[in-house]
Amino acid sequence: MDDERLSPLDTAFLRLESPGAPMHLGALAVFHPRERVPPGRLAALLGERVARIPAMRQRVRTTWLPPGGAAWAPDPAFEMSRHLHVHRLRRGTAMAAVAGELMAEPLDLDRPLWQLHLLTGLSEGRFAVLVKLHHAMADGLRTVELGLRLMDGRTDGGPARPEPADAPALDGAAGGAVRLARALGQAAETVAGSVGIATSVLSHVRLAALLPSAVDHARPSATARRLVLVRLDTRDVRRVRRLHGGTEHDVLLAVVTGAFRQWLTANDQCPERLGIRAFIPVSRRSRTTGPKRHNVLSGYLCDLPIEQPDPVTALRTVRTTMDRNKAAGFSRGPGAFPVLADRMPAPAQRLTVPLLRRAGPLLFDTTITNVPIPARPMTLAGAPLRHVYPIAPLAHGQALGIALSTYRESVHIGLHADDRAVPDLDRIADGIPAALAALSGSPA
């Protein structure tokens, strides 16, 4: 893995970093031990397991060829103490508040792009681990993969992914002709696909963001970040899916839509005259995706039907929109701009990414990402994992990011916001269970 080159998309995430918008994502894992585990033992165990993962001891270095490119290389000055931190929370301190403050701190881009924060002092002997990984290092699925390697019995990372079989070799002039034809065909497909994505993206650019003035996207500040955690019962989500159809993800998007509508109404805004567009990241990973690719992403754009007063009608609208996106495929359409970034040479990125950084709010208002977690029981130092709250990064100009994860009997939702732009984040959080209850026909 030494000197492995970053993909163009990985490099783009590095270039999207700004002082007010650090591009790291996170996860807050909460453990309920049967008996108290000494913090020193937990820290030593995490340190031992991190030390077995080569990627965690690498930093980014720039490359001469291609100009402006980057590669992973061992950090000669690596020190575990720079990345693994222990915090004892004082009585009455909210875990989410501490995690939000820690997420606001940028990572040192000259060091390996990760941190682990062990939060102790929680009630009933509970403890939590906050994982911070730069988006250049991992997407959501890669974050889960690395997190699993910290769990008991998973330090080997599991079985390696099978590599695709090599194609039969062709010799001589015939082989050269075939290889040339393939290369030209792939280049043509890439150019045609890129032009199609770029055209679609430009056609969906808005002259202004659609959220009301209560959410001011201008000049977000990393120091003003706030994190609110929400938990839903998985059985309630599945009950709505059985009642009205669609996927569990469709239901959750409709729930968020309902929470937004309630929030806007409480702020004396008129949802019927407004709109909120969400970017929905989609993984492009497959069994043949090489392990050296850290980000393999695309996405969809989804206009949330906040104008619909009837929650069931809103769910049907969300389902229709998502079905249309899926039918078109994740390699085309305006939400496929990560694919476009992944095809862009490093020199071109240096010119275009600063423009894209500021253009984000003209394409979408918020990110809603769903990160799957394996449903099997997991432990750390023998303590069962109970909750996993994902945390989405806030790109430049974005005031709110929503991340969802289902683990066993709970759906965990992390609302990550610029506190100046969304000072009443609790109202959105309170609207989520109320919106789910409205879909199931139960009283809030």
Quick rundown:
By secondary structure, this protein is α+β, with helices and mostly antiparallel strands.
Label this structure with key terms.
CAT-like_dom_sf; 14 strands; lipid biosynthesis; 444 residues; alpha+beta; 6-stranded mixed beta sheet
Give a structural overview.
With 444 residues, the protein is of the alpha+beta class. It has helices at residues 8-15, 39-51, 95-104, 140-148, 172-203, 234-244, 248-266, 311-328, 337-342, 346-363, 425-440, and strands at residues 24-31, 58-63, 69-74, 84-88, 114-120, 127-134, 225-233, 276-283, 297-304, 366-370, 379-380, 383-391, 400-407, 410-418. It comes from Dactylosporangium roseum. Belongs to the long-chain O-acyltransferase family. It catalyses: an acyl-CoA + a 1,2-diacyl-sn-glycerol = a triacyl-sn-glycerol + CoA. Pathway: Glycerolipid metabolism; triacylglycerol biosynthesis; Lipid metabolism.
What is the alpha-carbon Rg in Å?
22 Å
Strand line-up across the major sheet: 4-5-6-1-12-11
Structural class call reads alpha+beta
The string of secondary-structure elements, in order, is: HEHEEEHEEHHEHHEEHHHEEEEEH
What general outline do the C-alpha atoms trace?
globular
Write the layout of secondary structure elements.
Layout: H1 8-15, E1 24-31, H2 39-51, E2 58-63, E3 69-74, E4 84-88, H3 95-104, E5 114-120, E6 127-134, H4 140-148, H5 172-203, E7 225-233, H6 234-244, H7 248-266, E8 276-283, E9 297-304, H8 311-328, H9 337-342, H10 346-363, E10 366-370, E11 379-380, E12 383-391, E13 400-407, E14 410-418, H11 425-440
Parallel strand pairs: 4-5, 8-10, 10-13
Antiparallel strand pairs: 1-6, 1-12, 2-3, 5-6, 7-14, 8-9, 11-12, 13-14
Keywords: Acyltransferase, Glycerol metabolism, Lipid biosynthesis, Lipid metabolism, Transferase
EC number: 2.3.1.20
Catalytic activity: an acyl-CoA + a 1,2-diacyl-sn-glycerol = a triacyl-sn-glycerol + CoA
